[in-house]
Write a structure and sequence with these properties.
alpha/beta; 7-stranded mixed β-sheet; 4-stranded antiparallel β-sheet; binds 4'-deoxy-4'-aminopyridoxal-5'-phosphate; binds glutamine
Length: about 375
């Protein structure tokens, strides 16, 4: 490749999810790397997508999303959190949470600005901060408890900080930020007049503790961009229907960037996710119960295989420390694992700036059929050490 392009793209590389899913395909290994379910979500949601396609709702949707979906998002935020958003002025539909993150960062920060986030961080955060021309400053969540030192957070915030970028429930750790942690973050955001971008795509996958949107804290709604996605909640990750809830000026800013990214996307699927968001509470409760069972099964199987498990409180993911296997290099471990025992996982180190903090941590996805989880754990147990 042209050396200029090599240098220009070097900071971005290839996502670990693409690398590991390709490795799974190549080796025929069980893919507990990339987080996607291996079964579809509710039929009623699927049928709604088919109906939307059959009934000709296949052209560009409105730039801010179809009204049915925006109204359903409004009702969802109201039902679960008591948060009120105007469906026309304060909600924007995006191409998954991925586009919402990109558009929010491109809109809200630029060269000379700093974004504070916690590490390990979801990979697109670093890439989008870089694409915006801003600088990231990270606060480390330290295994095994994944707590943070409030002084580290205070030190990370400087006069250049524009945005605090949060993620709870958190990928890859499975941490659910506590009320006390969020309250502290809220105080710091207000003290320094920061905007908060909060990625809450795993909001319905909390097994212990409670999901508390930071926008519900006093003084926070008006400085917060809340990001959600239908992919995780309805097990249709390929549909890429995400959204932003924020006060009008922030939605307008995010929309300005978003219109030049995809403009619009996922037309018929927007109607289907609207149906999903209106499902009764029982759907959300049962979904959480099923996923909690999978989390428990995977954690038990990994422990039985001899691995030290850092038990997640939420999300699709469980982390292990491979030092319990007498190994220290998570990246080398994950690259060799498919060949050694037919299982793919993700090295958490790619989500850290402080590579020592994440070197021996490896992430496994639990959002798979139980027989798949069991087989993966059996293979790990047989791993020659
Ligand atoms: N944020 C987090 C924390 C994620 O784990 C993911 C991916 N699954 C996304 C955002 C992207 O979501 P979407 O598929 O809706 O773009
Ligand atoms: N969010 C998913 C994960 O963490 C992956 C999505 C992607 O491939 N970018 O596994």
């Amino acid at each position: 490749m042209n050396p200029y392009l090599v240098e220009r793209l070097q900071p971005f590389g290839t996502t670990i999810f693409a690398e590991m899913s390709a490795l799974a395909l190549e080796t025929g290994a069980i893919n507990l790397g990339q987080g996607f379910p291996d079964t579809d979500g509710p039929d009623v949601v699927k049928e709604a997508a088919v109906d939307a396609i059959r009934s000709g709702r296949n052209q560009y949707p409105p730039g801010i999303g179809v009204p049915e979906l925006r109204r359903a998002i409004r009702a969802h935020q109201q039902r679960f959190y008591g948060l009120e958003y105007d469906a026309d002025e304060e909600i924007l539909v995006t191409a998954g949470a991925t586009e919402a993150i990109a558009a929010a960062l491109l809109a809200l920060c630029g060269p000379g600005d700093e974004v504070v986030t916690f590490e390990p961080y979801y990979d697109s955060y670093a890439a989008c901060i870089a694409m915006a021309g801003a600088t990231r400053r990270v606060v480390t969540l330290r295994a095994p408890g994944y707590t943070f030192d409030p002084d580290d957070l205070r030190r990370a915030v400087t006069p250049r900080t524009k945005v605090l970028l949060l993620n709870s429930p958190h990928n890859p750790t499975g941490k659910v930020f506590t009320r006390a942690e969020l309250a502290l973050i809220a105080v710091i955001a207000q003290e320094h007049d920061l905007l908060v971008v909060t990625d809450e795509v795993y909001e319905h996958l909390v097994y212990e503790g409670e999901h508390i949107p930071i926008a519900t804290f006093p003084g926070m709604r008006d400085r917060t961009v809340t990001i959600g996605s239908g992919g995780k909640t309805f097990s249709f990750t390929g549909w890429k229907v995400g959204w932003v809830c924020a006060p009008p000026a922030l939605v307008a800013a995010v929309k300005t960037a978003k219109q030049f990214l995809t403009y619009v996307s996922s037309g018929p699927f927007q109607y289907a996710i609207a149906v999903g968001l209106q499902l009764p509470d029982a759907y959300f409760t049962e979904f959480r119960r099923e996923m909690r069972d999978k989390r428990d099964r995977l954690c038990a199987g990994l422990a039985d295989a001899g691995l030290e498990v850092l038990r997640p409180q939420g999300t699709y993911f469980a982390t292990v420390d491979i030092r319990s296997f007498g190994e220290t290099d998570g990246l080398a471990f994950c690259r060799s694992l498919p060949h050694r025992c037919g299982v793919v996982a993700v090295p958490s180190v790619v989500f850290y700036d402080d590579v020592e903090a994440g070197a021996s941590l490896v992430r496994f996805a639990c959002c798979k059929r139980t027989e798949v989880l069991d087989e993966a754990c059996t293979r790990l147990k047989g791993l020659a050490r």
